[in-house]
From TrEMBL:
Keyword Transit peptide: no
Domain F5/8 type C positions: 1-126
Residue stretches spanning the membrane: 1179-1204
Membrane topology: Single-pass type I membrane protein
Role of this protein: May play a role in the correct development and proper functioning of the peripheral and central nervous system and be involved in cell adhesion and intercellular communication.
Protein name: Contactin associated protein-like 5b
Provenance organism: Cyprinus carpio carpio
């Protein structure tokens, strides 16, 4: 229903057709007095009748008193309402949440372009009644129970409050055994503390603390609801809810005697409290259905009321908001007769910089300037342009809390204090004589020629309680123009809002803010971007292979920007397959004796990554397997009478599984049954034959939906002579079924459809495409008004378009070459609450910042269309592959199988998942085949597999100078522009082989424009050292992965991969080190191989190695995307590559691959010794002879082992009949095989460091 109301507006005119302000009026608002607090649910506006006057947009403010106002914000924190487009139409707005208020104020923002402001308004709602209690900071209400204590498993507490200060206890109850519940304000946030356990028996297990809300000390009403059932707690503050569970064992809350509201009184000492009391008003206070305030008003005996009144006293504190960081100011006059100056005020802001106060002294020859600098107060006395003195006090004053500042100027002294800190003083040479006025918040533009300039930014925030020379400033007089002057101020309101509530920073990013925007600090999260949305890690080992990485430990993030964190796995990268290996806590052989079904042996396996991560990793892989070695003696897997399992294992979902090999779940069989070679064909497992000899039921589990094994149970080893030995191997997966998941669209009207995007706040879309068509839509999803679309809009233009309610946003990337060239092109589009971006191949990133005030949620309501649109127009013709949205790759191939006009996969040589080009080589389609582009590879040849090596003589070096300041970390997305954030994007991938006999030696060094460097050297003893100096003010990080002498004339391989603080040193050593910082190498200057001349800021040991340089052979050097050795060979004469000394192209790496000898000291590159480059055919012949001899010896060893094994098996068969007591131990036999495999692996020609 509508309300009768009174209308008021200073200097406004009420015409017969509606309200309109005077054109000269600075206070252009329409205020409505509803005569009492009511619940408002909707408003409506109309223009002024019979005129060209209407309001096109407006803000809605509300207040209980008509002095302290608050702006109503709709969903997405939208602070404005759309108004009228003519004078007759009525525009209704149903409020997203009702407000209880007496006064409303309609504040026009924009109006009729051909007329003036004109308004007719209607307000809708219903009557509102409440029970109110006022707490003065020394009062409380005590609700006493009928019995000594009460024990509850369910509690509901609801109330509304408004507070005059940021700290104070609202609700408290406790019991003698240690239970308690406390609801309190702390720095404007609500904290709920609950403990349900006996503190003597369980000191901290049952405690939980939850924080919610922000800026709750704004003198406006806030609602609170606490619901507890057993351990489950729902905590709601102003429509924001957190769900938590308490720990511990107990479910009930035991409170003794009473529950207090407004404070925690000391027993037996009325009026004495343990913590700060609540100062403000509460209404509609209910505890488990009991109206506490109503009982207190009726003076019921179970309520003790201490200094509580039942009308809400309204504070006299009135705020003003400085709206602009460039032009806001408040000028206040001073008494001409004054000889001293004292200024006191309170302020709250998020900005770390701003001008708070400026005052002239001694006839404008001197000036006092109070600034907020990096969250601290700095008071500067400027005696002249070159002479000044400072006082700096306070810390973290830009935290959004109210802070009190006092400045006193008198005689020869100036003092400054903030909050409760003692004042700091500064001595003056002359007596201070304040001039005509004081400027607060900024400088007027008319005074810039007189030396008053905003040194950094004008103040942007709230201010109240301004007192000058003991006279409080009446803001009402200021806004009426009767006192001082001002610009860009809003009176009677503090417009601060917390942009970090809710926290839009993803993946545990830390949110900070200024007055107009938020910032996300992604340090240490493993993610990057404006909202920490994008993972810095590759999604799989297969993706690492495509970047040119060799085998080693890597961090992967299988769900990309999804909710799961990254995990470290071992990537075994071979020529034909890439294996992902995940280890667990027990990979050794385990012997089991004395177990039964009643008392089984149980082993749980804890993997190096979570089950959720494993589920995603396995689902992304083409195939997974896990070996279970199972050896038995008189120990069955199944009961031979009825088939009941006696041993089993649990899958990743905790389900019991009884098959022991293969990929056929539900079949109680072992590997021997699948291979049809069980020792007793009456049984499906060798162990079920129940022989006294050792039998083997080792199998490989390969049904990936059940992997990995999480637990194993062995239950039949309690008979005489019964025994089992088992080992569950690591999880091995290969392939990435999404990396090459593709679909071909060959009809313009065809498309694939998927469920609607779940992308309200953030979305990232990445895909590869190739086409010959001039245009086509890759992706589209529509809502009622919102939409999102990515398309090829022209042969050389990719467009990303979306609308979240603020109007269409269009980002375009134009290529200098056509994109419809039948080659694969990469597209990545991202949108979040901070910005939108579009990346195409390696072209410059396009991005656009989101408005600070506007809609943030993308509202969609239809299916997602791939390769077309709902209208079946502008469809895409060509191939799309690896389409990923928010870290989840869509299965295009599966959906294409059931869609006409679309086929699975994509024709063409380079569409194959099998990598045709190795070591970072890029496959390029040709009309009759393909070619490999090895530009970014350290290798050459047709398939980028040929080693590129060079021999270095004394004094030789190769230096690659970067063309422009270059960040070593080029992620898929632009770095955050946050002024408070430190990006942890640092990543280096380094690989090379070397052969030398010289120490010390400089292998590789990288230096930056910021005096940072990293270096890889051989120390005096020949050990490898890796140096990182990322912080000039700290000692360098030094790592020595091996103490062996590597200057031994043999070829060694070095592989280093750094991600943030973590550094991995390749596959054979499996070493991981931690740096002291995760800083990146900022703006790299150059990379040098070999001799380095003196350089400032480099440590002495590195200088010595650099001066000695390198004598020997370097092969296949890769630094991130750069191949400096290859660049030196192919680009001699280039300004980017500098070669000093005599360098000879070599093939030492290739010779090492062909030779089986560890020592290459006698074999040079192309027959040249590295020390003097002399020809030596005998060395080559000797090397070949050594290779032939070693191959012959290996063949003899293999034949000998085969004959010995055959003889041993015959011996075992005989011994099983005649000498059962002399069976060889199976675990020893297994270990012997491992040792043999280890010996074969160690015979390789390269050492991996």
């Amino acid at each position: 229903s509508g309300f009768d109301f009174y209308v008021s507006s200073a200097s406004s005119v009420l015409f017969c057709g509606g309200w309109a302000p005077e054109r000269t009026d600075r206070l252009r608002w329409l205020q409505v007095d509803l005569r009492e607090r009511v619940e408002v649910t909707a408003v409506a506006t109309q223009g002024r009748f019979g005129s060209p006057d209407w309001v096109t947009s407006y803000m809605l403010l509300y207040s209980d008193t008509g002095r302290a106002w608050k702006q109503f914000r709709q969903e997405d924190n939208i602070g404005t309402f759309s108004g009228n487009i003519n004078s007759d139409g009525i525009v209704h707005h149903k409020l997203s949440h009702s407000i209880r208020t007496r006064f409303l104020r309609f504040l026009p923002v924009d109006w009729s372009p051909g007329g003036w402001m004109g308004l007719r308004v209607e307000v809708y709602g219903c009557a509102y009644k409440s029970d109110v209690a006022d707490f003065n900071g020394r009062s409380s209400l005590l609700y006493r129970f009928n019995q000594k204590s009460t024990s509850t498993v369910k509690d509901v507490i609801s109330l509304r409050f408004k507070s005059q200060r940021g700290d104070g206890v609202l609700v408290h109850g406790e019991g003698q055994r240690g239970d308690y519940i406390t609801l309190e304000l702390h720095k404007g946030r609500l904290a709920l503390h609950i403990n349900l356990d006996d503190v003597k028996m369980h000191p901290s297990s049952g405690h939980v603390s939850v924080f919610l809300g922000s800026l709750l000390d704004d003198q406006h009403w806030h609602s609170v609801l606490i619901e507890r059932f057993n351990k489950q707690i729902n905590f709601t503050v102003d429509r924001l809810t957190k769900h938590v569970r308490t720990g511990g064992l107990d479910d009930s809350l035991e409170v003794d005697y009473e529950l207090s509201f407004g404070g925690i009184p000391l027993p037996g000492k009325p009026g004495t409290f343990l913590r700060k009391n609540f100062h403000g008003c509460m209404e509609n206070l209910y505890y488990n259905g009991v109206n506490i305030i109503d009982l207190a008003k009726r003076r019921k005996p179970q309520i003790y009321s201490g200094n509580v009144t039942f009308t809400c006293s309204e504070p006299q504190l009135v705020s003003a908001t400085f709206l602009s960081s460039s032009s806001s100011f408040l000028s206040l006059p001073l008494d001409a007769a004054t000889e001293t100056l004292s200024v006191t005020f309170q302020f709250r802001t998020w900005n770390r910089e701003g001008m708070l106060l400026s005052a002239w002294l001694r006839r404008e020859s001197e000036r006092l300037l109070l600034l907020l600098v990096h969250g601290q107060l700095r008071l500067t006395h400027h005696r002249s342009a070159l002479q000044s003195s400072d006082i700096v006090i306070g810390q973290a004053l830009s935290d959004g809390q109210w802070h009190t500042v006092s400045i006193s100027v008198g005689g020869f002294q100036v003092s400054l204090s903030v909050d409760d800190e003692p004042p700091s003083t500064m001595q003056l040479k002359d007596i201070a004589q304040p001039e005509r006025s004081v400027l607060i918040g900024g400088c007027p533009s008319v005074l810039t020629n007189q030396g008053c300039r905003n040194p950094t930014l004008a103040y942007q925030g709230c201010m109240r309680s301004v007192i000058i020379n003991n006279q409080p400033i009446n803001f009402n007089l200021v806004q009426q123009g009767l006192l001082g002057n001002y610009s860009k101020l809003q009176f009677d309101i503090c417009g601060i809002r917390d942009r970090c509530l809710p926290n839009y920073c993803e993946h545990d990013g830390e949110c900070s803010q200024s007055w107009n925007t938020l910032f996300c600090d992604c340090s240490g999260t493993g993610y990057t971007g404006a909202t920490c949305h994008n993972s810095i890690f590759e999604p799989s080992c297969e993706a690492h292979r495509l970047t040119g990485s060799a085998s080693g430990f890597f961090s992967i993030d299988p769900d990309g920007s999804g909710p799961l964190k990254s995990t470290v796995v071992y990537c075994n990268i071979t020529d034909d397959k890439v294996w992902t290996v995940v280890n667990h806590n027990s990979t050794e052989m385990v012997r089991v004796q004395g177990s039964s079904l009643q008392k089984p042996h149980v082993m749980k396996f804890n993997y190096s990554t979570s089950l959720e991560q494993l589920r995603t990793l396995v689902g992304r892989s083409e195939q997974c397997q896990q070996e279970v070695v199972y050896l038995c003696r008189k120990s069955r897997l199944f009961n031979t009478w009825d088939g009941t399992p006696l041993s089993w294992w649990l899958d990743r979902a905790g389900e019991r599984r009884t098959y022991w090999g293969g990929f056929l779940p539900g079949v109680q069989q072992c590997a021997c049954s699948l291979d049809e070679n069980c020792i007793d064909m009456n049984h499906f497992c060798n162990c079920d034959a129940d022989h006294s000899s050792w039998e083997n039921d080792t199998g490989v589990l390969s049904y990936k939906e059940h992997l990995p094994v999480t637990e194993i149970l062995v239950g039949d080893t309690n008979r005489s002579g019964s025994e089992a030995i088992y080992r569950v191997g690591s999880l091995h997966c290969y392939g990435d079924r999404f990396l090459w998941n593709a679909a071909s669209f060959y009809q313009e009207s065809s498309y694939l459809h998927f469920p609607m995007l779940q992308a309200e706040l953030s979305i990232d879309i990445s895909l590869y495409f190739k086409t010959t068509a001039p245009s086509g839509v890759f992706l589209e999803n529509l809502g009622a008004k919102d939409f999102i679309r990515v398309e090829l809009s022209a042969p050389s233009v990719v467009t990303f378009t979306f609308d979240v309610g603020n109007g269409p946003v269009v980002l375009m990337v134009k290529s200098h070459v056509p994109l419809n060239d039948k080659q694969w092109h990469y597209v990545r589009a991202e949108r979040n609450v901070k910005e939108a971006s579009l990346q195409v191949d390696q072209l410059p990133l396009r991005f656009l910042e989101a408005p600070s005030e506007g809609h943030t949620h993308l509202q969609l309501n239809s299916q997602l269309f791939i390769g077309g649109t709902a209208s079946r127009q502008r469809g895409f013709l060509g191939c799309i592959r690896s389409l990923s949205i928010n870290g989840m790759t869509l299965d295009l191939e599966e959906r294409a199988k059931m869609t006409p006009g679309v086929s699975s996969g994509c024709p063409g040589h380079c569409s194959s998942q099998n990598s045709l080009c190795h070591n970072r080589g890029k496959c390029i389609e040709k009309s009759s085949g393909y070619v490999c582009d090895c530009t970014h590879s350290a290798y050459g040849g047709p398939n980028c597999k040929k080693e590129v090596s060079m021999s270095f003589e004394s004094g030789s070096s190769v230096t690659y100078t970067f063309q422009e300041p270059f960040s070593v970390m080029r992620n898929h997305s632009r770095q955050s522009s946050a002024i408070f954030a430190q990006s942890s994007n640092s990543r280096e991938s380094i690989a090379f082989s070397f052969l030398t006999t010289q120490t010390p030696a400089m292998l590789l060094t990288v230096n930056t424009y910021h005096q940072q460097y990293m270096a890889i050297i051989l120390a005096h003893n020949g050990s490898l050292q890796i140096w990182y100096r990322l912080n000039r003010e700290k000692e360098p990080d030094i790592f020595t992965p091996t103490s062996l002498n590597l200057a031994n004339g043999e070829l060694h391989r070095v592989q280093i991969h750094r991600e943030g603080r973590d550094m991995y040193i390749d596959k054979d050593t499996n070493l991981k080190y931690s740096l002291s910082t995760d800083k990146e190498l900022i703006t790299i200057r150059s990379l040098t191989l070999g001799k380095v001349t003196g350089r400032a800021g480099v440590d002495e040991e590195v200088l010595q190695a650099g001066s000695r340089g390198f004598i020997g052979c370097l092969s296949s050097v890769q630094f991130n995307h750069l191949a400096p050795l290859k660049a030196a060979i192919l680009n001699r004469g280039s300004s980017l590559v500098s070669v000093l000394g005599n360098l000879v192209e070599s093939n030492c790496g290739e010779l090492a691959d062909k030779s089986s000898s560890r020592s290459l000291s006698d074999t040079g590159s192309r027959g040249k010794k590295l020390t003097n480059a002399a020809q030596s055919d005998s060395a080559v012949i000797g090397g070949l002879i050594a290779a032939v001899v070693l191959i012959t010896l290996c063949a003899v060893a293999v034949m000998t082992r085969f004959l010995y094994r055959h003889r041993n098996e015959r011996t075992q068969q005989m011994a099983s009949v005649k000498e059962k007591d002399h069976q060889p131990r199976p675990e020893l036999r297994y270990r012997a095989e491992l040792d043999l495999h280890g010996a074969m692996r160690d015979s390789r020609k390269e050492y991996f460091i």
